Amino acid sequence: MTVNEQQYLDLCQHVLAKGHRKSDRTGTGTMSVFGYQMRFDLQEGFPLLTTKKINFNLIASELIWFLRGDTNIRYLLENNNNIWNEWAFKRWVESASYRGPDMTDFGRRQLVDDSFKAAYQAAMTRFKEQILTDDQFAAEFGDLGPVYGKQWRHWETSRGETIDQLSDVIASLKTSPDSRRHLVTAWNPEDIPSNMALPPCHALFQFYVADGKLSCQLYQRSADIFLGVPFNIASYALLTHLMAKEVGLEVGEFIHTLGDAHIYSNHETQVNEQLRRQMYELPTLKINEQLGSIFDVELADLKIEGYQSHPPIKAPIAV
């Protein structure tokens, strides 16, 4: 049994047993707890869940997108990654430029109305094609505003300057490994109200060096346990591996601290199905030894070996 994956399954069981019924922004409803922490020993294996299949390429391409400071979904679509589509699509269908069927509340309506689902899928297909082929359309509707990549790499100050937080942390890890200031934040109060398609859920992370190992702690203000958290665990584990390689250290722990940790009411059946499954051994991450900089990483530089899992479990996303 892997202690790492059990941390996640224990979280699911805790929220189902102890959670509070709450309303939420999406209108879906959740079971929620406030304040929870998981610790993953990255020496044990790469924490890609085995009780349901997780697509590593989606996680890796999204992280590469962040590392490049990119905020436009075109790169993601070019790599067959659709995990940010709904937020960009929402901006388009709510704009004056949109001409087509009413897409109000499309996230929920597609689940209960087959005729609407067909219209939604046709509109989404058209949207994606235009993002990939029309530069002007992509610039206007593919960009999500100053989300993670922008804040990590190009934080804008009140003086009109920019701060590359991630590069600064890499430099401080190399020169002052015992510093308590190895932090990167995506939570920019000035940008959130009007510019971001979605305020950052994984809001702040900090690195720590001890015994020749690099550890990372993430504070996640809002945690969609079934759909989002498995991706967040693997994404920040991957980031820790890449940062450790960059600064010449081994990997230590990934510590995941959650604020509002919730299971959506329309995910409870899926969570219970996952809890009935047995775990497999965790896989291993392999990073191209010839990789120079973390900022030059490509999908081909990252491979998961020995990954055995149960089939995926589908669930609707709340937008």
TrEMBL record:
Active site: 201 (nucleophile), 201
GO MF: thymidylate synthase activity
Pfam families: Thymidylat_synt
Location in the cell: Cytoplasm
The keyword Cell cycle appears for this protein: no
Catalyzed reaction equations: dUMP + (6R)-5,10-methylene-5,6,7,8-tetrahydrofolate = 7,8-dihydrofolate + dTMP
Domain Thymidylate synthase/dCMP hydroxymethylase: residue ranges: 6-319
Subunit relationships: Homodimer.
Family: Belongs to the thymidylate synthase family. Bacterial-type ThyA subfamily.
PANTHER family tied to this protein: THYMIDYLATE SYNTHASE, THYMIDYLATE SYNTHASE 1
Name by which UniProt lists this protein: Thymidylate synthase
UniProt gene name: thyA
